[in-house]
Specification:
The N and C termini lie far apart (about 50 Å). By secondary structure, this protein is α/β, with parallel strands linked by helices. Helices cover about 35% and strands about 25% of the residues. It has 2 domains: about 270 residues, 3-Layer(aba) Sandwich (Aminopeptidase); about 130 residues, Glucose Oxidase, domain 1 (3-Layer(bba) Sandwich), CATH 3.50.30. The longest helix is centred in the N-terminal third of the chain and has 22 residues. Bound molecules: zinc ion (ZN). Zinc ion binds next to helix 8.
Length: about 475
């Protein structure tokens, strides 16, 4: 086939303009190289293996989080980060203690539960009462006043799959609000079916809140098969009695840390690309997918991108109290005066699987750098979602009111809630190849953001 004159002219024009294009072209080339470098072994799995083995579970405010902080400092130092330091802040803390439950009548047998994060303790001998089952949260909140006096309210509603509208986003409020809704109607305890997408006998924890001015009653999650068992018992029509004991530790004041390390920018060190994962976990598993994986992905990616010494500073932050939502707020408060240096912030906190799509701040969709990055991520199966990223994670979300642009990196998570917040959240659930694939997407993205001069605050249309 003969070349058409138009194509020849196009080629001549492109070559005439070559000096101006040199930088974007080399940015694309390096971004692609770094992606491939991470795919061939990013080091993320070794980081995750080290954290989950040498520290294990690490609730914020516990002695374990202090060991995690020391681990983080040593790890970032050994990877060549600069300005490695821990930023302490004061939090309320809650750790698990004794957690037991049983049906005492009419079919006595043990049940498997775990306390919800923030729950008050039962008396040392436990709470025993008749239970009232609710198949939906709506049924619980429409129960009449005093209808639960002296009873334990049990919510057996199933969380929908993560893809459906009744997934975690919806179910989260059942866990957060259930105890107070039950207490308003006189209940002395609250249990719910674990917010989970699988059926093993491991209960799933997570944070709950007490409503101001409402009695604080102990609250726990039942494993899914135990919730099924209670439903079968209830169908037999006789009153069911349960006894449960929760003896957690609650500290009104404890210390935790956001741990920070940087790769100083080659040209504009005062411009910061912030990437992050959270160091804390609940106490049941070893926090492998939540969020050791996010720490490992972002740390390995920052390290690999940083080896090319990009123009801007890469700042790695390991958040010290995500699960009780106290880390991002502490960071925003401590850095209110200097967050204008953060050109964009990202957070990896949705497991250890590959990235499905990414989003950039409003107004940046058609920028050359963003289009280049979209091309560079295509071989990883990552698509570009043009919906602007307004919220990139629980911790960096606290920087939104301070005007910090957010990066959105959505990981695949069809099975995330099978093990999230449960004793099953352990290293064996992580596929090293998937972890490398996620890290490759982050590595390319961090490098492109740190090497480009894009000002996402200016890119964003004024609102
Ligand atoms: Zn998390």
């Amino acid at each position: 086939m003969k070349l058409l004159p138009g194509l020849i002219l196009g080629a001549v024009l492109a070559s005439a303009a070559a000096p101006a294009l040199a930088q974007p072209d080399s940015l694309a080339m390096m971004t692609g190289r770094l992606r491939d470098r991470a795919m061939s072994g990013s080091g993320a799995y070794d980081i995750l293996e080290s954290l989950t083995t040498e520290v294990g579970p690490r609730p914020a405010g516990s002695p374990a989080i202090a060991r995690a902080k020391d681990w983080a400092i040593a790890k970032m130092t050994s990877l060549g980060f600069s300005n490695v330091h821990a930023e302490p802040f004061t939090i309320w803390a809650w750790f698990k203690g004794v957690e037991t439950a049983e049906v005492t009548a009419p079919f006595p047998q043990p049940m498997v539960i775990t306390g919800l994060g923030g729950s008050v303790a039962t008396p040392p001998g436990g709470v025993e009462a008749e239970i009232v089952l609710f198949s939906t949260f709506d049924a619980l909140v429409s129960a009449p006043a005093n209808s639960l006096t002296g009873k334990i309210a049990v919510l057996t509603q199933r969380m929908g799959s993560n893809e459906s509208a009744t997934g975690y986003g919806t179910a989260n409020r059942w866990r957060r609000r259930g105890a107070s809704e039950a207490a308003k109607r006189g209940a002395v305890g609250f249990m719910l079916r674990s917010l989970a997408t699988n059926t093993d006998r491991a209960p799933h924890s997570g944070a709950m809140n007490y409503e101001e001015g409402v009695a604080k009653i102990p609250a726990a999650a039942l494993s899914s098969p135990d919730a099924d068992q209670l439903e079968r018992m209830a169908r037999r029509g006789k009153p069911i009695r349960m006894k449960f004991t929760l003896l957690p530790t609650y500290l009104p004041e404890a210390t935790t840390w956001n741990v920070v390390g940087e790769i100083p920018g080659r040209v504009t060190p005062d411009e910061v690309v912030l990437v992050s994962g959270h160091l804390d976990s609940w106490g049941l598993g070893t926090g492998a997918i939540d969020d050791g994986a996010g720490v490992a992905i972002s740390l390995a990616a920052a390290h690999l991108a940083g080896e090319r010494k990009p123009r801007r500073t890469i700042r790695m932050v390991m958040w010290g109290a995500e699960e009780t939502d106290q880390a991002g707020e502490a960071y925003a408060k401590a850095h209110a005066a200097d967050v204008s240096k953060i050109v964009i912030a990202g957070e990896s906190d949705f497991g250890a699987q590959h990235v499905m799509y990414f989003q950039t701040p409003a107004g940046s969709q058609d920028l050359r750098m963003v289009q280049m990055l979209a091309e560079a991520l295509k071989p990883l199966g990552v698509t570009y979602n043009r919906e602007p990223s307004r919220f990139g994670g629980d911790d960096i979300g606290h920087l939104v009111p301070l005007g910090v642009p957010q990066l959105g990196m959505r990981q695949e998570g069809a099975h995330y809630f099978d093990i999230h917040h449960s004793a099953e959240d352990t290293l064996d659930k992580v596929d090293p190849a998937e972890l490398d694939k996620a890290t490759a997407a982050w590595t390319a993205t961090i490098y492109a953001l740190a090497e480009s001069g894009v000002d996402f605050r200016k890119a964003a249309p004024a609102k």
